[in-house]
Design a protein that fits this description.
With about 45 residues, the chain is mostly helical. The protein has one domain. It has two helices and no strands. It is elongated, with a radius of gyration of 14 Å. The relative contact order is 0.12. The mean pLDDT is about 85.
Length: about 45
């Protein structure tokens, strides 16, 4: 059971890092600054 939670945590951490990278590179210039700030705050949490 511990292996499952460790694997799930690692997968969710990788997804959050990928989301943050997506926000900082792909969305810049495509959405307004306020929306980008909100997305980056969500990625940090």
């Amino acid at each position: 059971m511990m292996q499952f939670f460790l694997s799930a945590g690692a997968i969710l951490a990788a997804i959050s890092v990928a989301g943050g990278a997506f926000a900082s590179h792909a969305l810049r210039g495509k959405i307004d600054d306020r929306a980008l700030e909100i997305f980056q705050t969500g990625a940090q949490y």
